[in-house]
Design a protein that fits this description.
Keywords: Hydrolase, Lipid degradation, Lipid metabolism, Signal
CATH superfamily: Alpha/Beta hydrolase fold, catalytic domain
CATH architecture: 3-Layer(aba) Sandwich
GO molecular function, one term: 1-alkyl-2-acetylglycerophosphocholine esterase activity
CATH topology: Rossmann fold
Number of strands: 14
Strand order of the largest sheet: 1-4-7-9-8-10-11-12-13-14
Number of domains: 1
GO biological process, one term: lipid catabolic process
Radius of gyration: 19 Å
InterPro entries: AB_hydrolase_fold
Number of helices: 8
Organism: Stieleria marina
């Protein structure tokens, strides 16, 4: 993995986010009353690195946006991977939420499967996105983008003027939605299937290479895939080696499969501290939220989905925070359970189920 980076140019977002008006509900955690789905006590800002390249992969560009909390660091780190056709603002609201709770969040843009590439297909956007998930180059480069982002974190922690000593390098997690969930599972130990990749690579059937990153302590997979075209085989999951939280729901269809197929994938996860949170009426687009970003395209999508998404996002934010607090911050009094999430059930997301391994 390359430790060389060249982020000379960056754009600093000067807009600070105040959390003073965040709503508070009854939720007992560590003796305090707090709404885990609301923003935390810290303000945050963003630093954008649009032009970072990896010299070890033919100067592949890996744009990164860092959500930085204000407060005494170092902070645990979460690396975020967007879905096919997304960008580094696709999970902006979720990243900001975590930053206000004391996480430094690094959002990746995967240039071979981003918004620009999706729109290049014109009216065939659905077919374009489906092709991205089978593109052997992009499928195998995405996990490497995550490892490259961690390399940048290590470099910034040592020498970047604004980010020096901000990162807790022993507490790094991964998170992603859809194609980003695939990416998260792979960097947490799952092996990708070669069977559906195009063009085929050498020995192009069975399990792909081991691309997990030993620096990652846990992962959150939003819309994790079950076995089958195009991502995984049943055998793919056996090598998962860190705690994982999957989040999906009753309307979250997978390519070629109905929502319940995501539960089939979870059944093949190995024994360990793994969970699958199932949210009634959650659909595939419920799990990304670009609200608050300056990306016009992302915000248009957020506005269109907002009325159907917030009930799901409320539960997802609370569950993600509980899981990360337990496994990255290692808070002994924190535990993810159905009872800890019931209070967030309302609106269309009126029922949850938490499966455990």
């Amino acid at each position: 993995m390359s430790m060389q980076t060249i982020p000379i140019r960056f754009v600093l977002s000067v807009a600070l986010f105040s959390t003073a008006s965040a709503g508070i509900a009854q939720d007992v955690r560590s003796g305090t009353t707090i709404d885990l789905s609301a923003h935390g006590s810290l303000s945050s800002s963003e630093i954008d690195f649009p032009s970072i390249v990896d010299p070890e992969r033919d100067n592949r560009t890996v744009p990164l946006k860092v959500h930085v909390p204000y407060g005494p660091g170092p902070f645990p780190v979460v690396i975020v991977s967007h879905g096919a056709g997304g960008n580094r603002d696709a999970n902006f609201a979720q990243a900001r939420h975590l930053a206000t709770h004391g996480y430094i969040v690094v959002c990746i843009e995967h240039v071979g499967s981003n918004t620009k590439q999706a729109l290049a297909g014109g009216l065939r956007i659905g077919k374009t996105i489906a092709a991205m998930t089978r593109d052997s180059d992009e499928v195998l480069n995405r996990p490497k983008d995550v490892s490259f982002a961690i390399d940048q974190v290590m470099r910034w922690n040592g020498e970047h003027t604004q980010l020096h000593n901000h990162f807790d390098l022993k507490r790094i997690g991964a998170m992603g939605h859809s194609f980003g969930a695939f990416t998260t599972l792979v960097v947490c130990g799952a092996r990708p299937a070669l069977d559906w990749m195009r063009p085929r690579i050498v020995n192009g059937r069975g399990l792909g290479p081991d691309l997990h990153d030993k620096r990652i302590r846990c992962g959150v997979a939003l819309s994790p895939q079950g076995p089958g075209d195009p991502f995984f085989l049943k055998e793919s999951y056996a090598s998962i080696c860190v705690p994982l939280l999957g989040i999906s729901g009753s309307k979250d269809k997978q390519q070629n499969f109905q929502p319940e197929h995501r539960k089939v994938g979870f059944q093949w996860w190995p024994d360990g501290p793994h969970h699958l949170l199932w949210i009634n009426n959650a659909n595939h687009l419920s799990f990304s939220d670009s609200t608050g970003s300056k990306s016009r395209r992302s915000n248009r999508l957020s506005e269109a989905l907002a009325s159907r998404r917030e009930d799901v996002q409320r539960i997802s934010r609370a569950a993600t925070l509980l899981f990360l607090d337990q496994h990255l911050k290692q808070q002994p009094s924190v535990s993810l359970s159905e009872s800890s999430l019931r209070k967030y059930e309302r609106g269309i997301a009126d029922k949850i189920q938490l499966l455990k391994k």
